[in-house]
């Protein structure tokens, strides 16, 4: 599995910031808000959300605008906008690095960029202390072509590929991005390519195990919550035993990694207390 790195607070002039790197993709996110909003964008009973995605090279185009729409529609269901009416929450995402073979993908392909963008956004929102109903974890899986000419056999024998490289994405039959809340609810499902319902469901279960970890997913697919609260990030407990190089990873999947990144920042902030 590809190495994942996450950190909070790399930018000192933003209310919240985070970096997220995985499989050659690196993203930095800055969050500012709640801040004053222009009168034409003001919403009387909730905060407006602005998402800006900047590519690694050049200026943004239709693909970046589409990514902004997907991220906006996902985050607006997580952010408790009603707590800050007539304000603006600004989310800026800068793609820092891409894999060398990323240029081989079709210019219109966008699913491979969603997981790092969403995970960086989730961490930056936490660092900015923006009120959230839950946290978010995202990953991508793809389905390769099968050698069988029988559609039924091809569907049953095709195993989803986790952490696909650009070359694998290019040669795959379909790619699927899933984002899960910390309680296991699906908050985003975006797919490209040709696939069956059974393949989509199988890809979703594989993605759920990656994001939430095998220890939190029951045999029937239900998520086993360890804490009393279903939202937010759970710190303490056995989380310290699952951290690698200061970042939590292990049976909790990507969720454990994000918990570890937040835990590192919390401990740094408490050093002045002499703990």
TrEMBL record:
Keyword terms of this UniProt record: Exosome, Nucleus, rRNA processing
GO MF assignments: RNA binding
Region feature Disordered, mapped onto this chain: 148-169, 229-252
Chief place of localization: nucleus
Polar residues bias: start-end ranges: 148-160
Protein's UniProt keywords contain Nucleotide-binding: no
UniProt domain Exoribonuclease phosphorolytic: residue ranges: 6-131
Biological processes per GO annotation: nuclear mRNA surveillance; poly(A)-dependent snoRNA 3'-end processing; rRNA catabolic process; rRNA processing; U4 snRNA 3'-end processing
Pfam families documented for this protein: RNase_PH
Subcellular localization(s) per the UniProt record: Nucleus
Signal peptide: none
One GO location term (cellular component): nuclear exosome (RNase complex)
Coiled-coil blocks: none
Similarity comment: Belongs to the RNase PH family.
Annotated protein name in UniProt: Exoribonuclease phosphorolytic domain-containing protein
Protein species of origin: Elsinoe australis
């Amino acid at each position: 599995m590809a190495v994942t790195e996450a950190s909070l607070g790399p930018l000192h002039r933003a209310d919240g910031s985070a970096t997220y790197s995985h499989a050659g993709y690196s993203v930095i996110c800055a969050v500012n808000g709640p801040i004053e909003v222009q009168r034409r964008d003001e919403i009387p009973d909730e905060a407006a959300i602005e998402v800006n995605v900047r590519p690694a090279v050049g200026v943004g185009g239709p693909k970046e605008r589409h990514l902004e729409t997907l991220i906006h529609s996902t985050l607006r269901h997580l952010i408790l906008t009603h707590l800050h009416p007539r304000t603006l929450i600004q989310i800026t995402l800068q793609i820092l690095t891409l894999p060398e073979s990323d240029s081989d993908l079709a210019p219109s392909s966008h699913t491979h960029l969603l997981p790092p963008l969403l995970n960086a956004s989730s961490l930056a929102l936490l660092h900015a202390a923006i009120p959230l109903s839950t946290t978010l974890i995202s990953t991508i899986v793809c389905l390769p072509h099968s050698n069988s000419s029988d559609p039924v056999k091809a569907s049953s024998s095709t195993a989803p590929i986790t952490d696909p490289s650009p070359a694998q994405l290019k040669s795959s039959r379909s790619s699927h991005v899933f984002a899960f809340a910390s309680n296991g609810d699906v908050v985003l499902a975006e797919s490209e390519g040709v696939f069956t319902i059974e393949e989509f469901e199988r890809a979703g279960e594989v993605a759920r195990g990656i994001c939430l970890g095998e220890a939190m997913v029951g045999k029937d697919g239900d998520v086993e919550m360890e804490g009393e609260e279903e939202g937010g990030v759970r710190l303490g407990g056995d989380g310290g035993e699952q951290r690698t190089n200061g970042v939590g990873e292990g049976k909790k999947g990507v969720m454990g990694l994000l918990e570890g990144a937040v835990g590192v920042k919390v401990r740094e902030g408490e050093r002045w207390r002499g703990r």
